[in-house]
Amino acid sequence: MELLHRFAECLDKKTIFIHIIGDSMLDEDYQVQVTRISPECPNVNILLSDHDNPLRVLPGGAANVCYQLNNFNVISRLFTFIDTKAYNIVKKYGINYWGKVHLPEGYFIPRKKRFYEKGFQVVDRWDIEKVNYGLDDIKLRCLQTDLSKYWSAFQAEPDVIIFSDYNKGLFAKDFKLDWYKTEAITIVDPKAAPLDRWKNCTVFKPNSKEAVALSGLYDWRAQCNFFQKELNCSAVVITQEGDGVVGKDQSDYFEYRPVHKIKPVDIIGAGDGFIAILGLAIAHGFNVREASQIAFHGGLMYVQQQQRGMLGPWSFHSSGKILKNCAFLKKRQYKLIFTNGCFDCGLTAGHIECLQYAKSLGDKLIVGVNSDESVKRLKGEARPLFKLADRMKIVAALECVDFVVPFKEDTPLEIIKEIRPQFVVKGGDYKPEDVAGFGIADIKICPKYDCVSTTDKIKAIMSQ
Fold first, then answer.
1. Are strands 126-128 and 111-117 parallel, antiparallel or unpaired?
2. CB of 294 within 8 A of CB of 286?
3. Which regions of the chain are under pLDDT 50?
4. Which residue, 139, 237, 286, 378, could crosslink 290 as a Cys pair with Cβ 3.0–4.6 Å?
5. DSSP-derived 3-state class of residue 79
6. Strand (E) or helix (H) holding 100
7. CA dist 158 to 29, 384, 444, 446, Å?
8. Could you give the domains of the chain?
């Protein structure tokens, strides 16, 4: 898509400054087995695990919006309420937490507990939270005042301010910052009334259910007119889950419907991904119609990831999985596997077996592909038969491959040093100590690997 390509091409041209203000949460995922139906209640599953530690704890809400911008050329700052555990998670994931407003001892931000078997949620979500964090009006006002002080003391003017209201308490009691004095683009992701706290924002972005609840209207065009009149905002964007996005920019209505409707099994965080990319696209000069379409694809690509990962510039390149560099992988919070090859003259069954084996060892698989110059040095002047771009596209087309990156050296040692994968996988008669990356990562030799070399294939063809 030409629009996504234009967006991808502009991402490295300038640094964008974005502030995110709103309710943060923690998403706690647990790995369980559904063993049987409870004899005590015929509609209740019994969940089994041998420990009570979560599989992963991820930033949620406003913190996730900030997290989704980490891989872009963005300086983002998070203003939120936080507790001690959440603060440690935020630091772990490299989120720039600026508004240091800690809840008093004994109070906590909301937790959302989800239970998974083989990657799918198996029971209802368990939310642990209190209205307004359990704070009385006086304590809540004190924290809101503290947040205002941090906000007012910050001198640098951002390009965009995103307000992520999850109705957990940060914006309760009609609290609002003096954000209306800013020259920045202001984007509001609302949850509940009253509306007047968002008066004079630039873009108002409810989802379809919120639009009905906040306006009392069911036609999206009528909703847009209502919000523009009530808020004096420039634009309204209404997301409609997998059905697309609609809205109004100044006096122009717009409607984007994807050609192929996709209903992901898990849409956790789609709204966070959407609002982050919407702000980024508008900051780069795309109009609201264009930015909404880009953001829709951003949200879609977010929910199509496994292990609830991160968006990045690669998400919007037409080449998809193909990376120019892989520095972002140093911040990962999942098990990364690396393998490499020339992949000249196509793939064999042996290649497929090795790549599938590599992916089975972890969460994401990155494949290094020798550059044309590297192949020439290793294989001779007549090689490669196929250019690097074609060889990377072939590898990237495999479902088991998550990322593909080229390297110019004879071995991928420099990439391995940079990303430090959990495992490096090779196929063939290798000893671990002879594999690039030995001593940096665990080396795994594919147990089943019967691959006819490209050189042998060429000889066989020429002999016919």
1. antiparallel
2. yes
3. none
4. 286
5. strand
6. strand 97-102
7. 34, 48, 47, 50
8. 2-316 (3.40.1190.20), 327-462 (3.40.50.620)
